[in-house]
């Protein structure tokens, strides 16, 4: 639903576009035409929302059909090297992935397992021989793969996986084995039904009793072309899940499965012609993190599609609230409704601009991409769940119906908080990376002074305040951990002792990153009407972060008591300003209306009534 055009044709000689269309142009940037192409594909009948009540078997079948049609569109080719039939544009593919999430999260995850986790891991960890063998088949749809990293007993402890790959020098092959029940690969997408080859992460040993060389990745076939599970491989279906039941997750066990020498993805380590292990990175831990750093694409995609889920929910809820009259007044005109819906909208816009920056870092292989990806993935998925839940509640009983979008969105997005890295683990990773960086940069323990007082609606002051808070917290944390090292027994133990402070720091770091990108977007916007709308939304984001952290800001003399008291009134004023453009701000997401609700579940066809024993049929 678009806002009314403020001028008639005669009164608007410049034929200005509605505000929503102008904001949409800003959000889509150089990818407007590509998004239009993806939107046209996804509004074809085959991709429209499915009725509720489908069995997982029906949903999986439909998702496979959709994946095949998506593959035939050529869009999955975008991120790959042109010499293998790709488009050489990974950033463009992130835009397409976001569109898939608007349509169906199961489809987004299914293709993400196939073209993202499987395809990009062999692309990032393999070499030309792997690329030439697998990528063309992946892109033409004749090969489906999966990503077998997580184990049932290990969760996020990837460096501690127990699956083994033992090198057999006589046959120049590897023996892949699951040594214990808790080493089973778990929750693996494309495992239960469709996957033919898995990228399997395992501890490499150069002989059965040798010390492990650390985690390495191997291409391991699990099915033949007739979909028959191969000898030595056992697969168990995970069954029904809370959400994403269009994805065939499974458990995988390997019983001495032999794969050839070239199955090892050998970008960072290899076995030479003499059967000797070779790597340019001799330390196992350093080699592991070097390998893992190439696999951040999945976290970027999850951050983008968490935001996509929030956009769907907010568009549905704000459109509903803007047209709903309660107690003689429009629902969105109530301050309480504004406070529930508009700050999540501000968060979503902040994340939109931040993920654009993150995608640039990914493509440019920036040194801090792992840190930023972990921070934004954790925040995006948490914020999305909060937004979806608030939207469900404000829609009342109507929001609880199966033909409303909220229940399915909530169930599908929920897992984003735990896969591609548990959010708590990712936040600790961010803090550890920033601690290491702080120490390398010559931390001297000096306190960071709070900034002088300013106007909380001044972007320069906002940036200064957010940056000073982040700097103070990382320095305080570094000093605290350094002091604990002697009694804790080492830096890792000292860090573990201070995990709560590390998590609090990561929130401050993420706030700073989000604000910087939002302010940058406002500053560079050329259309004054769009700039004004985005400025109000950016201010609302900043002020709500300050409200949330007002206790810390008071305790550390960053704000005075009267300033923190004024924040809530400022937030209410901003809510009233943002409310004027709220419909245009969600219309700018350009989500096809078909994706904002689901068809009602089809009731079973009633059985024909039975005739009574003495019923002789109709009478004249």
Question: Could you give the topology of this structure?
Answer:
Blueprint: H1 19-28, H2 32-42, H3 56-72, H4 90-103, H5 105-125, H6 128-139, E1 145-148, E2 164-168, E3 173-177, E4 185-188, E5 197-205, E6 212-221, E7 233-237, E8 250-254, E9 257-260, E10 270-271, E11 277-278, H7 284-292, H8 297-322, E12 325-326, E13 329-330, H9 335-363, H10 369-394, H11 396-399, H12 406-414, H13 423-440, H14 459-488, H15 491-497, H16 499-524, H17 528-548, H18 550-555, H19 561-587
Parallel strand pairs: 1-5, 2-5
Antiparallel strand pairs: 2-3, 3-9, 4-8, 5-6, 7-8, 10-11, 12-13
Helix pairs in contact: 1-19, 2-4, 3-5, 4-5, 4-8, 5-6, 5-8, 8-9, 8-10, 8-12, 8-19, 9-10, 9-16, 9-17, 9-19, 10-12, 10-13, 10-16, 13-14, 13-16, 14-15, 14-16, 16-17, 17-19
Give a verbal description of the structure.
The structure is a single chain. This protein has 620 residues and is an alpha+beta fold. Helices cover 52% and strands 10% of the residues. It has helices at residues 19-28, 32-42, 56-72, 90-103, 105-125, 128-139, 284-292, 297-322, 335-363, 369-394, 396-399, 406-414, 423-440, 459-488, 491-497, 499-524, 528-548, 550-555, 561-587; strands spanning 145-148, 164-168, 173-177, 185-188, 197-205, 212-221, 233-237, 250-254, 257-260, 270-271, 277-278, 325-326, 329-330. Helix 9 (335-363) crosses helix 17 (528-548) and helix 13 (423-440) packs across helix 16. The longest helix is centred in the C-terminal third of the chain and has 30 residues, at 459-488.
């Amino acid at each position: 639903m678009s806002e009314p055009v403020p001028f008639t044709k005669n009164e608007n000689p410049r034929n200005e576009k509605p505000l929503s269309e102008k904001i949409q142009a800003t959000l889509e940037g150089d990818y407007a035409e590509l998004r239009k192409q993806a939107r046209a594909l996804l509004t074809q009948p085959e991709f429209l929302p499915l009725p509720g009540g489908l069995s997982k078997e029906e949903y999986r079948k439909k998702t496979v059909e959709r994946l095949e049609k998506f593959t035939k569109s050529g869009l999955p080719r975008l991120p790959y090297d042109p010499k293998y039939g790709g488009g050489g544009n990974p950033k463009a593919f992130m835009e397409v992935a976001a569109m898939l999430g608007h349509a169906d999260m199961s489809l987004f995850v299914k293709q993400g397992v196939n073209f993202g986790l499987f395809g990009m891991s062999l692309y990032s960890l393999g070499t030309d021989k792997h690329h030439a063998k697998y990528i063309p088949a992946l892109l033409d749809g004749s090969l489906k793969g999966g990503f077998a990293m997580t184990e049932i007993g290990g969760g996020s402890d990837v460096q501690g996986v127990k699956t083994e790959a033992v090198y057999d020098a006589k046959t120049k092959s590897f023996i892949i084995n699951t040594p214990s029940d808790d080493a089973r690969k778990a929750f693996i997408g494309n495992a239960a039904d469709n996957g033919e080859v898995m990228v399997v992460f395992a501890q490499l040993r150069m002989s059965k009793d040798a010390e492990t060389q650390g985690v390495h990745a191997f291409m391991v076939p699990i099915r033949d072309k007739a979909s028959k599970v191969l000898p030595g491989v056992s697969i168990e279906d995970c069954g029904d899940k809370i959400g994403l039941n269009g994805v065939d997750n499974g458990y995988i066990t390997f019983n001495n499965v032999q794969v050839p020498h070239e199955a090892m993805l050998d970008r960072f380590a290899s076995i030479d012609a003499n059967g000797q292990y070779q790597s340019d990175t001799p330390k196992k831990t350093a080699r592991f993190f070097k390998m893992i750093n190439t696999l951040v694409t999945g976290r970027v995609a999850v951050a983008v599609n968490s935001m996509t889920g929030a956009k769907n929910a907010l568009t549905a809820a704000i459109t509903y609230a803007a047209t709903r009259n309660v107690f003689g007044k429009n629902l969105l005109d109530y301050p309480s409704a504004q406070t529930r819906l508009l700050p999540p909208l501000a968060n979503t816009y902040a994340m939109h601009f931040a993920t654009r920056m993150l995608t640039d870092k990914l493509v440019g292989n920036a040194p801090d991409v792992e840190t930023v990806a972990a921070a934004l993935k954790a925040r995006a998925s948490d914020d999305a769940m909060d937004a979806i839940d608030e939207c469900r509640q404000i829609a009342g009983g109507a929001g609880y119906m199966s033909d409303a979008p909220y229940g399915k969105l909530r169930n599908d997005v929920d897992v984003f908080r735990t896969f591609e890295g548990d959010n708590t683990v990712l936040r600790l990773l961010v803090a550890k990376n920033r601690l290491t960086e702080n120490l390398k940069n010559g931390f001297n323990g000096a306190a960071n002074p709070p900034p002088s007082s300013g106007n909380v609606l001044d972007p320069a002051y906002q940036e200064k305040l957010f940056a000073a808070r982040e700097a103070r917290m990382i320095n305080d944390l570094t000093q605290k951990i350094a002091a604990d090292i002697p009694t804790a027994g080492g830096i890792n133990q000292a860090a573990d002792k201070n995990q709560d402070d590390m998590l609090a720091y990561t929130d401050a770091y993420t706030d700073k990153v989000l604000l910087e990108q939002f302010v940058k977007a406002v500053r560079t916007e050329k259309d004054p009407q769009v700039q004004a709308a985005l400025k109000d939304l950016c201010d609302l984001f900043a002020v709500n972060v300050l409200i949330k952290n007002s206790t810390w800001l008071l305790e550390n003399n960053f704000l005075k008591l009267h300033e923190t008291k004024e924040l809530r009134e400022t937030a209410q004023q901003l809510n009233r300003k943002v409310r004027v453009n709220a419909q245009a701000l969600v219309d700018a997401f350009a989500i096809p209306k078909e994706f904002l609700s689901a068809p009602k579940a089809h009731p079973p066809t009633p059985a024909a009534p039975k005739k009574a024993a003495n019923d002789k049929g109709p009478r004249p």
